[in-house]
Amino acid sequence: MKTSKKVSAFAVFKSKKAVYNVPKHDTAADDTASTINDSVQTAMTDRSYQASFSKKDKSSRRESHKHKKSKKKDPLQKVRASYLPDAAIDSPLNQLKTCSVQLTSLKSISSRANLTRPTMNGIDSTSLHRSQSPKHTKSPKKRNKTKHNSGDTGSADSHVVMSKKKRKSEQSMATWGYSLDDSVCSIVNAEKPPKKRRFDENVKKFSKNEQNGSPVSRRSDVPFMYDSSLEANNMFHWLIYPTQPEQFFSELWEKKPLLVRRHASKYNEEWFSTAEFDKILREENVQFGVNLDVTTYENGKRDTHNPVGRAYPPVVWDYYQNGCSLRLLNPQTFSQNVWTLLALLQEFFGSGVGANVYLTPPGSQGFAPHYDDIEAFVIQLEGKKRWRLYSPRSDSETLPRYSSGNFNQDEIGEPILEVVLEAGDLLYFPRGTIHQAETPPETHSLHITVSTCQRSTWGDLLEKLVPTALNAAFEEDMDFRQTLPRDYLDYMGVANQDTESPQRVMFLRKIEQLMRKLMTHAPVDASCDQMGKTLIHDSLPPVLTDAEKACSIHGTGERWDGKKMKVIGSVELEPDTLIKIIRKGVLRLITGDDSVHVYHTLENARVYHGEEPKFLDITPKMAPAVEHLIHEYPKYVSIESLPVETIQDKIEIAAALYESGLLITKEPLESLDEDDVLTD
């Protein structure tokens, strides 16, 4: 909805003088956030972007242009992912011939599809050098915006870019391989699409899995998720494809950025879109400052323009048309696809995973240069965005614990990477990497920044471990309770740090001895469990398939029959019932003084820390049964095989876990009612 020049959405909120601090999402990238990007145009007008392509890249684009003109149609076989809802997997994935990376990633990477790995040929790995970034062409003058607050630290919407020196591609490369010989950043140009593989996409019948005989699908056309850790690995492989995960973690993770140019505009399209963003605004209660930020960065100043209350679509789109960037802070709350993506990746990383979505109008920038305290994966969904990345300014800002404030341009030096992301591309950079991003004048940008590993360091573990170890040492070791020497202040302290004396040497030696002894009292496993408890609270609940619901309390059991006017569907666990936990990372066993808590994610909110931690109390004698289920995952085990004393105890602990939604049976439980037929 357009507003007149005299009356605008900004004027409506001009009278509100309150200052609105934008809440910081603890698990998201760029201001702890992450985002999505929009549809891509093949014609590049920016010179520095064109220069970043090799001659081989240009020839491949000319070839793809010929394919577009060709009358012959070769549509891509639709790909279904077991972890995607129907709304996502039913969208057509065409233009494969113009893509450099095949969209088999959503399923064909999965072992369930039984497809061979595609061979990637002609991957271009280039060295990079520092260069002056080109001047950005400003968009037409916009109307004045009501400025409520400029105190935000920025977001992954504004990231940095890298210039590169052209170099010959290596002639021989292994399957999925590429050279990582540049000390600044790794760039992967996937020039040729992998060979298409055909596979049966029909609804799978009730059949046996080759791995262990478990059913593939029940009562649903969604494949049964057998091993959530395998699905999580496949999801990450899709995210960084064609990069090898082993190479990523050995050579790039926490060290340097990775740019993947896929030349495949449809590669990321299932996760989010501007159309879905508009639908969320119309159908959900999106609140300014809670779920949505409206921001600008002009003339070196970052401003937030959040009014109070619900973000109604006409108001939001008026801000957008006047050059404001829109940041959706918790897209997983409203989007099933984003929820699915993050829920799988959190199991892969063993850390909370968050996301922010950024929608930026043409010729604008929403956030000042800054760095974040998370590992960021920028997934470009629509349009284009120019990124500039800068090295950390000092060792203290490398892998920082906290995000930075906003920087001025003269504080950050020259970019180490400058690149235009297009739909289908991926950009990864470690925490501490200063970044900023802007859209070119001719197109908007939509991207999602996936963020992870916030406060998940060795130091965070020691922060929990050392105080606990010290308390134990006080109780158990008399050496820690002995009095300090009477005169220790005569030779210790800053004023005495340059002096040398026998007393000072003996004092420092004693401290060293006590520190070594302290480690003998360190409850390492218990402290790791406390980190695991934090992870459980940080995590999203799992996304369950229909097949999983049919084999758990989430979709079976007692129900009311409106025609028979009675409860039907009673089921019962038997000693020979085969069970397993519903997800590998769904629970954590935490021991207390007199009881054991089973913390789990099933009842977590889709908003960060929207609920208090949820747990199930069990007696210590039942704990071995839970440990057995954890260790045996993903195998099914019979209830009678659980390592507790009596059959009654075995049934009791299994029933407690099943009724809490934490267990899944291998087969749907049969109803105990003879005439149990659903008539509703």
Radius of gyration: 28 Å
Low-confidence stretches: 1-144, 146-181, 192-223
**Terminus-to-terminus distance:** 44 Å
Overall shape = flat
Percent helix, as a range, is: 10-25%
Q: Strand percentage, roughly? A: 15-25%
Number of strands: 21
The description of the largest β-sheet is: 11 strands, mixed
- List the total number of helices: 16
Mean pLDDT: 76
Secondary-structure-derived class: alpha+beta
Oligomer kind: single chain
Concise synopsis of the structure shown:
With 680 residues, the protein is of the alpha+beta class.
Keywords:
3-stranded antiparallel beta sheet, 680 residues, alpha+beta, flat, 11-stranded mixed beta sheet
Describe this structure in words.
- About 25% of the residues lie in helices and about 15% in strands.
- The protein is an alpha+beta fold and about 675 residues long.
Sequence-ordered SSE layout with sheet pairings:
Layout: H1 9-12, H2 47-51, H3 55-69, H4 86-89, E1 127-128, E2 164-165, E3 186-189, H5 228-240, H6 245-252, E4 258-261, H7 274-283, E5 292-298, E6 301-304, H8 313-321, E7 325-328, H9 336-349, E8 353-360, E9 375-390, E10 417-422, E11 426-429, E12 434-438, E13 445-452, H10 458-476, H11 488-491, H12 502-520, H13 524-538, H14 546-550, E14 559-561, E15 566-568, E16 578-581, E17 587-591, E18 596-600, E19 614-618, H15 623-632, E20 637-638, H16 647-659, E21 663-665
Parallel strand pairs: 3-4
Antiparallel strand pairs: 1-2, 4-11, 5-6, 5-7, 7-8, 8-13, 9-10, 9-11, 9-12, 9-13, 14-15, 16-20, 16-21, 17-18, 18-19
Helix pairs in contact: 5-9, 10-12, 10-13
